[in-house]
Design brief:
Elements: E1 5-6, E2 16-17, E3 22-25, E4 30-33, E5 36-37, H1 47-56, H2 62-74, H3 83-87, H4 95-109, H5 119-144, H6 158-167, H7 178-190, H8 198-207, H9 213-224, H10 232-244, H11 250-258, H12 279-295, H13 300-313, H14 316-320, H15 328-338, H16 345-367
Antiparallel strand pairs: 1-2, 3-4, 4-5
Bound molecules: s-citryldethia Coenzyme A (SDX).
S-citryldethia Coenzyme A (SDX) binds next to loops.
Amino acid sequence: QSGLITFDPGLGNTGSCQSDITFIEGDLGILRYRGIPLEQFQDNPNFVEVALALIFGELPNQEQYAQFSASLTKNANLDEDMKHHFAGFPRSAPPMAVLSAMISTLSCFHPEFLELEDETQFARAAARLISKVRTLAAYAYRRSLGLPYNYPDPSLPYVSNFLHMMFSEPYKQYSMEEEVLTALNLILILHADHEQNCSTSTVRMVGSSGANLFASCAAGVSALWGPLHGGANMAVIDMLEAIHQGNMTPEAYVALAKDKDSSVKLMGFGHRVYRNFDPRATILRDVCEKLLNKLGINDPLLEIAKKLEEIALSDSYFIERKLYPNVDFYSGIILRAIGIPTSMFTVIFAIGRLPGWIAHWYEQHSQNDGKIWRPRQVYTGLNEGRFIPRSERG
Ligand code: SDX
């Protein structure tokens, strides 16, 4: 049955997770959101529309879309007192640390959402979180550079407003290029959900204790931060930069990634579920080429990435282990072209993944009538012993 995963490690304790949000068939490179193949979201990509489908189960009609969009616009501002918290972070603070802390802080400023009575209340909390995550991310970025905050512009749609808050200057509004808006909507859509990945399972686990939506998603941000998970998009750029700086050739890097004695991995390659291509990587590679051409950007990192892919996909080490490019392999090059700094790449992943976390939190909340997740273990420790007083210990 699609989405059925059991946590039964053979101990008879089955905590199973059933979900009807996202379906993945790893051997065939299939990914569907609420039954719709990912590839069908590429024309006129609209992240808000996909977020609504993931959270509420189907694509919104005109009225539902307009209502939710109006709620996103209305709730983009932060409580003015939240701004002081940013000043408490060092400018060098990792943006994912700031994002996790500030999402959790939303539960201090919006106590009305700590207990969600019904779907209407849940929808209001979801709109606030999806709207404010942009503002939190943009303020963290502006603060890191000592720049003034840009208030949200109510005339701008979701992605445009985020780019405005990130890059507008007091003397010049950020100029929105259609290709950039399309690319960023699509990047957010491609990151929006992915079944029981590390961060989504974290959100479900934390939410199963009855923790509120903000606290559960703040935990998801922390899980996503890891370099094996959402942090890989930053690590890919570091890898491509190292090769570009001439520290080593693509061939030498791939050889190092194959070496059992080295801790080096080909970042952006491999996946626990996809044992064939990651459909997101295929789309992102195409978006990357088109956007850089449209913007007239000749980024040497793209050529290096394509060279690494070519070498790895003809190498038996990667073929035997079914290692292919994943969602992180090309996404960073697109974000660079948009002008988003590497330090913010995983934050962008988090903004994209938020609707998936919210959808899973609510599914977990409404599916298991509040039962806590409690996986068991295979115990490999000592058999029963006895306490020896310290005076008798060697
Ligand atoms: C994401 O779960 C999700 O859905 C995640 C995600 C999402 O949308 O939420 O898709 C997003 O996290 C994508 C993955 C981003 N991470 C990276 O790109 C980091 C590099 N990739 C690897 O660390 C690894 O491929 C993982 C973590 C992604 C998957 O690891 P697995 O499934 O635990 O595989 P493994 O570590 O057991 O590897 C199996 C073999 C090993 O070699 P052997 O022991 O068989 O000799 O493959 C090798 C590994 O050494 N291997 C790699 C490799 N990935 C696996 N060797 C070199 N480079 C790599 N990238």
